[in-house]
Request: fold
Amino acid sequence: MKILIIGKGYLGARCAETWSDAILTDKFVKTAKDVEELIDEHQPDAILNAAGIVGKPNVDWCESNQEETIEGNTVLAIKIAKACQKKGVYLLHMGTGCIFYGNKEDGTPWDENDFANPTAVYTRSKYAADLVLSTMENIGIARIRMPLDDRSHRANFIDKIVSFEKLISIDNSITVVEDMIDVFRQLLEKKAPGIFHVTNPGSINHKEIIAFYKKYVDPDHSNEWIKEEDLLKMGMVDKKRSNNIMTSLNLPKYGIKMRPAKEAVEDAIKKYAKNKKS
Ligand SMILES: NC(=O)c1ccc[n+]([C@@H]2O[C@H](COP(=O)([O-])OP(=O)(O)OC[C@H]3O[C@@H](n4cnc5c(N)ncnc54)[C@H](OP(=O)(O)O)[C@@H]3O)[C@@H](O)[C@H]2O)c1
Reply:
């Protein structure tokens, strides 16, 4: 199967490393026509859209750069989708689970049928793309959360949380990158349409992740634990962050399973320790 990946960033490149048969383009897409040209050139069976604007150094950048954020996360996604529709190519679009803030009223995890409640510019721009793309045929939307990887990267959730002196601890959904890559491949091969919550089942909190980090990577690691409301009060973030627990009703329909969150995170941190030494 020929997969074309648009978006040569962290996660697009991670997928390309694993899929030796995939093409990772470095073309900067401005128009739907650019995508049509990429399709004509590479003749892919499916496209992964891993392009987007996540904000650097962090997502707060999006708050003051609304135009670029909407262009990169909403408008670009629609252009790519339109080109794929025109050429009859399946598209798997990367979404985020951070569009859900807090618990659902009935206390159950957020599933693919739920409407989200995003507040920040980044999460609104991502959700806007989901709302449009989910009305189109032959498109899958894969929502991930807090990607946690077995190798070091500034966007890896492990590297992120160990770099902070002060941390909150809240139960959350998480996506282990090794599992994400495997699920994406299955969705692409099955050309599965609809929304998919690509998060490891169950939840994990920051204290549990740090405990694994201390066990396998650095027993001397230390940090201070603070309350969620202190993040805003202390000026450590500009905009409230999303914390939530998600579940997938749609992955099982395609026979796709993921490892439980705690098991997958422990395994990833063990591998992270090994990769760090080698
Ligand atoms: N990392 C996370 O924590 C996370 C969590 C949930 C969902 N996601 C989603 O996963 C996707 C990939 O994220 P990532 O972490 O890999 O981000 P990333 O490292 O910033 O990669 C995104 C890539 O897209 C590129 N891009 C932006 N506009 C483009 C365009 N018009 N044409 C071609 N490429 C373009 C960026 O190029 P430039 O660097 O030149 O701008 C960058 O290389 C995004 O949709 C993101 O919303 C990420």
Notes: The CA atoms of residues 216 and 270 lie 6 Å apart.
